[in-house]
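User: What would this chain look like folded?
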Amino acid sequence: MTSAQVDQEHGGDGSVGGGEGYQRGLGARQIQMIAIGGAIGTGLFLGAGKAIAKAGPSLILAYAIAGLVIFFIMRALGELLMYRPVSGSFSEYAREFVGPFAGFVTGWTYWLFWVVTGITEVTAAATYMTYWWDIPQWISALVFTVVLYGANLISVKLFGEIEFWFSMVKVTAIIGMILICAGILTLGFSDAGDTATVAHLWNQGGFFPNGIGSTLMTLQIVMFAFLAVELVGVTAGESKDPKTVLPKAINTVPWRIAVFYVGALIMILSVVPWTEFQPGVSPFVAAFEKMGLGVGAAIVNFVVLTAALSSCNSGMYSTGRMLRDLALNGQGPKAFTKLTRSGIPLVGTTFSAALMLVGVWINYIAPGRAFEYVVSFATISGMWAWIMILVCQIRYRAKANRGELPESSFKAPGAPWTSWFALAFIGMVIVMMGIDEGARVSLYCAPLWGLLLGVSYLVLKSRDPEGAAFTKRP
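Assistant: Here's the prediction, encoded as structure tokens.
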């Protein structure tokens, strides 16, 4: 199949059926910040506290290796996006290169991932609010959910603008924190100035203070921190110039990880020994408090609050579009296909936001463990999208090499071996989750979710066995 044939089949703009009805309202500036912001969220700002307590300085190495795997995944996604940029890309590629059932499972699972992630993020945001005010977490969670839902109903341009400024706050704050820590290490100011030293990375029990096994057990938290970097794939259908903007955004992944994860953790753990951090407390807020910079701690708490709201905002955005993609392909209720005049999938976004209110209930009955309850399932459901991206890229590359499909203008370097390596790494993370008693619950839930999807798929197929939704693309 030639490039022209692909465009004719899927629409000249890369969208299914010649146009999905969305408005291409996301510019280069917004796409870049969405890509950057996707790499900085609650997994780093809050989850890293538990990971530091468990692994010590070796967490830096865990983030570096996992970051390399994430780059392989993103380049695999980039190769697919340049072959055919579509909204709802993960399920579309799974449907094309694996089969209709894989597309069905991927679309619904990625939707569930963002619903659960939205619950996780409003939970984190509600936790951060208790830093200033002693108010019930469920009230904050409710307010945040309603406000972000309202913002997502206005226009995709507003979503992009909100996400741009959320991401700008996060980026500026982390760079500022790195510079402050560098100043403390070189100039010795603040309460931590006399004790700050890079030697903290190996003097407090060694680089692997609790053994390599403990470091491996943190991989679930580490991978959760990187979930959402693939969001640029969902924006493909609403990008003004996807074939120019998306590769640039994806190629920023290595330096984002090097600066915002590896660099930030090296600085924090050099200024404050890893033994000073506690699970459930943001290491960034705790670090400023240890330095005696109370105002800085309050500012950082505001930053981590915006990080959580940013991720929840992304969840609101993506869920409605995933549901609409499924409905357009006959794998979801037709009501989800409706768009407002401004191009917003109203019904799907509303349905998803309503389910996110479960987070309010969780924060009401178990405010102390709400974050822990949902993070594991978010990780396993999010990693399914990564698995599908890698599998589809491997199959696409094989077809392109045989001349059956046009070659992508943005090939993944080292593929398919890098894709196979990434799949093996994800498999290891899943094994680690099975060993971890706290994370194991997500592996119990996954088969139940799979069974529900399997039954639903059979019911839909029985109603329209010859429909396009249940036949594999050529």
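The CA atoms of residues 461 and 470 lie 7 Å apart. If you want, I can go into more detail on any region.
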